[in-house]
Amino acid sequence: MILSNSPALAPLSLLLAAILIPMVAFRKRWLAYPLALCASAFATIISVVNVVRVLAEGTIHYHFGGWLPPIGIEYVLDPLSAFVSLVINAVSLLVLLHAHRSVAAELPDRSMPYYAVVMLMLTGFNGIVMTGDFFNLYVFLEISSLALYGMIAVGNRKAPVAAFRYLIMGTVGGSFYLLGVGFLYMTTGSLNMADVARIAPTLYHQPALVAALGLMVTGLGIKMAIFPLHGWLPDAYTYAPSASSALIAPVGAKVGAYAIIRVIFYVFGVDFVRNSLPLTEILAWLGAIAIIYGSIMAMAQKEMKRMLAYSSVAQIGYIGLGIGLANAYGIIGAVLHVMNHAVMKACLFLVAGNYRIKLGHSTIPRLDHRVRKRMPWTTAAFAAGALSMVGVPPTVGFFSKWYLALGTIQNHRWLFLAALLVSSLLNAIYFFRILEKVYMKPMQGEVPDDHATAREEAPASMLTPTLILATALIILGLLNAVIVSGIIQAIVPPGM
Q1: Alpha-carbon span 331 to 262, nearest angstrom
Q2: CA pair distance 480, 152, nearest whole angstrom
Q3: Which of 191, 409, 432, 482 has the fewest other C-beta atoms within 10 Å?
Q4: CB-based contacts of 398: which residues, under 8 Å, 6+ apart?
Q5: Of 239-243, 316-320, 365-369, 418-422, where does mean pLDDT reach its minimum?
Q6: How do 74-77 and 60-63 pair as beta strands?
């Protein structure tokens, strides 16, 4: 019984937690965190079950209330949705393990509503990934967006402005997507993705269908924060609470990327977006520009969280470039980078959270060799994340860049290949400047040497998930061939 309902269990369990937390923890606030953690752990276990089911049974269609599509609501569990759902829930679980101390320190009086909002956000993310209906996707998109606005706004005094900016851009993005859905329904008479995929090839000549695709991808591009639609991202990641940054940065933009892949390749088809509409070409160029722009801006930052925010702009560019290449290597690289970037950026934002808890800041100019003596394991986790972001083998960052490079070579796009190579150099510059400060002792007289620096690592509840993610950067890198051949190759859309 449970197994047959597994496609719906992850979002429903998270939604149940979002409802129960305010009810149960209204008087006993300490219950909010265990409830959120249990719901996240259950969703992760169900995600593992879903991956196993898809690999064994193939694509699974789940119909709510017995109503068949296109009238009823359908969840679709295929290799793409199962894989992305597992990434979202597993990374979120590790971040939530880390979040207890940081939320208690930064949001002591708002922890109960905060965890409820986090559960609501994860409900939206899982729903976006699972749904097979365009309007249902919009509903989950707005649920997650509303939760994100709240998670950002409770940060420092600049956070409400950052949240308001995101609210404005998110509303514009949602409006674009919904308008596109209206054009789509007017043209095809259906909102079920599989149904539209069958009808659309007979209507490729309709301008309304082209408009629908353009509007939906533009709206999803704002949610994904692809350049130049990224304006909300740097401030949101910088001024949000540490736990919010560590949750939003690894998985927040990925659901937008997932939705774009689903819409343009699985619904409208490879031939249409490659030959009839220059959408993939636009995405490829925007991705390449984002890679360079985000890396250059990251070099100029003095706050670690802001540096990581602009780094995320560049990393989202990698995914956009892979989608835009519209070939098998590009899609493999893009989907693999969804996982790789989630693990890398979660690790690095947890490091920034550890520094803020123990040092009281994460300002780059104030870091020196004493940080490595005081927090050796946290600093080692940062080194692992930094090397992976640069793309040093055998860390995960190397392999997604490798597939993207193969995709550019297959398409003879040498400028895009150059952007990938230059970005690795730029990544090395802004990450190695921190590694130099924390691992190399300054010359005599530049910084006072403190021989009495005591080791004062982050608490075990914060350090353990940080080290798990740092270790995963290497383990997943070594297992990349297994992941690609076992799961991601099955994700490549037909016709590539």
Answers
A1: 11
A2: 33
A3: 482
A4: 388, 391, 392, 477
A5: 365-369
A6: antiparallel
d(CA 386, CA 462): 19
120: Cβ contacts below 8 Å, ≥ 6 apart: 14, 15, 18, 143, 144, 146, 147
- Non-local (6+) Cβ contacts of 283 within 8 A are 217, 226, 260, 320, 321, 323, 324
Is residue 448 predicted with pLDDT exceeding 60?
no
Cβ atoms of 267 and 196 closer than 8 Å = yes
The tokens describing 89, both together, are 């829930």
- Residue 210, sorted as left (phi over 0), alpha (psi -120 to 50) or beta, turns out to be alpha
| Residues 164-190, mean pLDDT to the nearest whole number | 91
Taking alpha carbons only, the member of 241, 374, 353 closest to residue 304 is 353
Distance, CA of 110 to chain centre: 25
Contact between 148 and 214 under an 8 Å Cβ cutoff? The reply is no
Nearest to 369 by CA among 440, 450, 467: 440
Residue 458's closest CA among 446, 450, 469, 466?
A: 466
CB 39 within 8 A of CB 17: yes
- Confirm if 231 and 260 have CB atoms less than 8 A apart: no
Q: In whole angstroms, what is the distance from residue 213 CA to residue 262 CA?
A: 12
Compute CA distances 260 → 195, 295, 461, 462, whole Å: 18, 23, 36, 34
Mean pLDDT of 212-222: 91
Burial (CB count <10 Å: 0-12, 13-18, 19+), residue 206: middle
Distance separating alpha carbons of residues 111 and 118, to the nearest angstrom: 10
pLDDT reported for residue 495: 67
Cβ(411)–Cβ(494) below 8 Å: no
pLDDT digits (tens, 9 = 90+) for 473-483: 999 989 988 99
- Which residues pair with residue 60 across a beta bridge? 77
